[in-house]
Amino acid sequence: MNKTLRPYSLFVLAIFLLIFIFPNICHADAISPIINVFTPDTAIPASILTVLIILIEALLLWKWIKPVSFRLSLWRSAIINVASSAAGSVVVLVFFRDKLEWGMSGLIILMFFILTLAIETPLLKILYRNLGDSLSWVRTAKISFGINLISYLFVLIFPFIFLFAYSIYGSIADSMHVKKWTDISLLNNESGYIYTLDHNDSGKNMKYVLEQYDVEKRTWKRIEPASGWEKGIRSSAWDVRGNIIACIIEPEDWTNPQLSILNTASYTPIFKINGNFQEIRISPDMKKLAAIEYVREAIAPKDKESYFSLGSACKLRIYDINSGKLIYEAPRWALNEGLSWGKDSTTVFFTSFRDEHLFDNNRNNFPQTHSYGRGYAKEGQFPIDIFVFDLATNSTKTISKGMDPRIVSSTGDITFVRGRGMYDREIWKFDFNTGKPSQLIGDVKSNYHAVSPSGRKFLIQIPHHHVFGEDSFLTVIDIDKASKRRFILRSSSHYDFRWVPKTN
Q1: What's the rounded Cα separation, in Å, for the pair 151 and 142?
Q2: What is the DSSP string of 34-54?
Q3: What angle do helix axes 70-91 and 2-21 make, rounded to 10 degrees?
Q4: Domain that holds residue 86
Q5: Structural domain total, the chain
Q6: Sign of the CA dihedral 165, 167, 171, 174?
């Protein structure tokens, strides 16, 4: 008996190893391999769900089919589930790949349920053939229907159970972070101002206001005049440096917004510019303004029925900060994925597709009706690079793969973010002395970052564990990879932020 079971035991072990190594491929039941539902980012919960389904069906088989032991029921459950999952994967890849719609979900689940029964019922009969007539085809069909109905109901209910359990865990974890990440000594020997946005409920409107944190004094201050900003500013485009603010002040009627350049001494506009601005930055010498202005959507074909929405196709324009006159325009298209001035105010760092021809596509020329975000593309399909625009030569050149460039004011180097997939992020630095990039911090889970004037500390957004919402801790971290020190500057952060040197 043991010799007979040994190869089966090895086979079951191999199945479980396959489940844990490739959970997004080898899911239990034909319902599970639906594309875009289980992704590498959900590998852990998907693996847990897979194992639970196999265990549930093994328990049901053990209870309903006597006198077979639980161990034998377990490997039989693993075999039938992997078989139906493989069949479901083939069906998805052949008939539904890149064509699934939420409106079809009910029909697809029913179809996969029928497919599961068609695969698992005869397989159960074969696996329990030693029971002979005591397990007839009718009884086999009833057992197959019963275990799969229960497991499918479990698949539909489990996410809610998991979300409830995870929300409890998330609340506890977030509370522990608030208590633990309090090492304000991270700001020792650092300087400058940190700027961010905050919600302010004025009683009539929920508006965005600018907040300034003095790193040396450890104090917060609100940046707004006594009147005139009743509706706050736009969260999409703003910058502060020295006594200059560039922002879009929300008008009373919410229409015809303009980019305003103001002096904090009087909050009177130096000038105003019309335009659909995505990002803006004031130069270190406070004489110029770099602006990313939206022109149209950047897209690329995906298949006959859908396309990729790649982001905003923008123009990088440079304005004189005293007159508002347009003085430069970069010859290359830009994305709204980060913007930064060089240390000497003669260069601007921005992001763009490595293949500039991607900006040539016009939405009106595409008959496709369904769109997918860039995160659904294959890794490396649409690489984004950081470019430098030299104002003196009116030319651009590639610096490195990455996004969200930020200048290290003490050295002139730039730090930036590299991403893999939809959530994995790393912070890198480009050293202009060596001409090479190097990774500084891995696994930061933050689209934005800011670097201190010294270059020794970073400001990142660490997501809360809440199941719903996109709230984050605005957190100071050390450049030392081995350091576990953290300091939560703000417990709630949604938008972009800055860390700039103090300027007279």
Answers
A1: 14
A2: -TTTS-GGGHHHHHHHHHHHH
A3: 40
A4: 2-178
A5: 1
A6: positive
